[in-house]
Amino acid sequence: MSRTLRTMEGYGLIRLERGERGRITPKIIHDMVALDLPLTVTHEAR
Hints:
This protein is α+β, with helices and mostly antiparallel strands. Helices cover 20% and strands 22% of the residues. The protein has one domain. The chain contains 1 helix and 2 strands. Strands 1-2 form a two-stranded antiparallel sheet. Strand 1 (14-18) and strand 2 (24-28) form a beta hairpin. The chain is elongated, with a radius of gyration of 16 Å. The model has no long low-confidence stretch (mean pLDDT 88).
């Protein structure tokens, strides 16, 4: 799980904060993420 959280932090989706006793807590930065994904593959994308 920590690898996934670090990846999400790298994309700017969360922030990891160090709390009491060195415990790391994920904090949400955004309240919404929108993805625009094509449902078909164009000839140029191959």
